[in-house]
Specification:
719 residues; alpha/beta; Glycerol-3-phosphate (1)-acyltransferase; Rossmann fold; GMP Synthetase, Chain A, domain 3; 3 domains; nine-stranded mixed beta sheet; seven-stranded mixed beta sheet; 32 strands; globular
Amino acid sequence: MRAKRSFLETLLEKIVRFCFRAYFVLVHRISVRGLENIPKDGRKLVVVCNHASYFDGPILWAFLGLDLKMLVNRLVSEVPLLKPFMNNHLTVQIDPLNSYSLKKAIDFVNEGVPLLVFPEGRVTTTGNLMKMYDGAGFIAAKTGAFILPVNLKNTDRLLTSKAPNKKRIFSKIIMTIGKIQDPLVLTGVNGREKRQQASTKIYDMLANLKYEVNNQPVTLGKMFIDKCRENAKRPAFMDISNKEITYKRSLTGGFALGGYFAKFEDKNIGVLLPNITPTALLFFGLQLFGKTPAFLNYSGGPASISTAMEIAKLNIIVTSKQFLEKIKIDPAIFKEKKLIYIEELKNEITAGAKVLALIKTLMPNVFFKEKAGADKETAVILFTSGSEGIPKGVCLSHENIISNVNQALAKIDVRESDVILNALPIFHSFGLTVGTILPFYSGAKTFLYVSPLHYRVVPEIAYDQNCTILLGTSTFLNGFSKKAHPFDFYSLRYIFCGAEALSEKVFENYAKTYGKRILTGYGATECAPIVSMNNAMEYEHGTAGRFLPGIEYKLEKVEGIEGENTGRLYVKGKNIMKGYLNNEKANNKFLLQDEGWYDTGDIVEITPKGYVKIVGRLKRFAKISGEMISLTAVEEAVNSKLTGGKEAAILFEADEKKGEKLILIANNTSVTLKEIREILSEKGFSELAVPRDIRFIKEIPKLGTGKVDYVKLKASQAV
C-alpha cells in the first residue's frame, strides 16, 4: 500500500506542482486538451505517453491531476543529476534486465494507484516514436487496467530533449489526453507473442493519437506559409541547377508565381513540367490563390495528355520549351490552349509584382485568408497511370493530402536535417505527396531531379548531396544499383519503395552491396497515396507493411481465392479522394454503391501480425481449370531469375480446353518456355501457372513510374 504522507509533505507537493504548472504556462504557453477523458471513478489505470524530453514526467504529473506513480529505469535513476527527481515516493524503479522487478508496479496498479509509463523506456533521439518495451503492455494486460494515452507535442524542441530538431527556449507545448482505452485482450499462443502483441497495441494507441493531434484542418496554402515562416533560413529545395532556395525565398517565389496565374479566370491550371524547383513553387503558389494544379502525365504520350486536358477542361498549360523537346511532345497537341513557358515567366512577372510578392512574404497572413471548409476543396488533380485502361482524373483535397502526410509521419521520422532525393515525377502521387509535400511539411530539404531514368546520375547526387532518404520504384532502384558505386548510398537512412512490387533480387542487391534495407509501402493515387508501409519500427519482409493510422479496411471474398484473411481490399479514411473528375459512372460506384469505401481492385492477405501482403490485382488474375492464377506473381517469379537485361511480362487469352491460358512476352529471343517452366517449378508454382505460349517484343513498354504499360503491351500483341 502507498505510505501516508504528512501534512507538510502533502503541502510541499502541492506547492511544487503549482510551481511546475506556472512555469509551463508562463514559459511554454502549454495548452492541455482532453481533460474530460481522465476517469474519475478510481478504476485501475495505466497512463502511456511518448517520451521526447526530461520534462515529460513533470508535465504529466503537474497537469493530469492524478495521484500517480511513475515507472523509471533504476539505472538511470542512479545518475547523480537525476537522482532527486527519479528516486522518490512518486516513482517506481525497475530493472529492465529483470522482469520480476515489474511486480511492484503491478501491485500498485492492482491497489488502484494510477501508473505512468513511457513505453519507449528512454528519451527519443529521432523526435518520433521509438522501440516500445514490453513493460507498459505487460502491466496493463496483467492487471486488466484501462489505458489512458497521452501525447506531448513540441517537447522534442525543448533544451532537455535529445531529438535532432532545432531547439527553442520558449517552445509552445501541447498536451493531448486521448480517449481511455479498454483493457488489453491478447490472443497470442505463448508469453512472448502476448508481450509483443501488447507492445504493438500500445504503439498503435500512441501512433494513432499522434496522427489525430497533428491532423488539424488546414489548406496546403496555409501550411506552406506556416512552414516557410517557421523554417525561414533553412534550405527547402535544390535541383539540377545546383541552386539552393530557402523556405523564405520559397514563399516569395510562391507568391510571385501564384500571383501571375491569379489574373486568369480558369480554376484549373495544367502543369507539364519535370522535377525542378519552379515546379514545386508553382504548385504551392497556386494553392495560395485558390487555383488547382492539374499535373499532366507525360509518360503516357500525346494521347494520354490529350485525354487529361479534355477531362480537366484545361485552357492554360504551364510547360517548358526545352522539356517538350526532350520528351518529344509536339506542341500541336495543345492547339487552342494557352501555353505559358516557365523559361519566359521570369521576364513576364513585372518588377511591381515581384515587390508585391516580397511584401506578402513579410506579412503573409495579411494577404492570405483561409475560408472555412477550404480544406475539403480540391487541391490538385492527378491522373491515374492508365496501366490497364483509360486514365482517370483523381481529385485530392487539401485534407486528403495533409492527412496522408500526417499518417505517414506518425510512423516514420523525417527530420529537419534530412535531405530527400526525389527523382520520381511530381505528376505521380508518390512523387508529389511523399517526395515533395511531406519533406516540406517536416522542415527538411528536397533535391528534385528531372528523371529517375538517369541511372548513373541519381546515385551520384545521393553521394554528392549527402542525401539521407531516397525514393524509388523497384524498377528505378534496380537501375540505380547497376550504375552506383558501393559508397554512393553511404549517407542514406531510409530507402522507400512504392508504386510496384519490390523485386526480391533488388532487395537482396541493396542489402548485400550497399548495406541498406529497402522499406516497401502500398497505396494508390486515389489514397493520396499511402495506405500501408513498412518502417524501421514495424517491418515484415515480403509485405507492404501495416495500415497507417486513421485508415479503415475491409476484405471482400473473391471466388477462387482461398484464405480466411484474404480478399479484395476496400479502404476508407481522410486520405481517400473526393472523387473522380467528370466521371459520373466511377463516382456512382465509389460514393454511392461502395458508400465511400475505395475499391483498390487488389487482392491482399492480412498476416497474423496485421501486415498487408499483396496477392495481385483482380484484373491480373486468370482462371485456368477453375483455379485463380495471379499474373503478377508469375511475372515477378520469372523476372527474379532472368539475368543479362532479359525481362518478361505475362498476359492471358481465352483457351478452349482450360478457359484461359498464360502468354509470356519477352524482350529477348533467348528466353525459352523450358527455362520459364524450370524457374516456376523451382519457385513452387503449379503446372497451371506455366505459360503456354511465348512471344517476343523489342522492349517491354513502361509508364513513367516504371510499371509495365499493359494497355500498350496488349495492343502490340492483340491479346
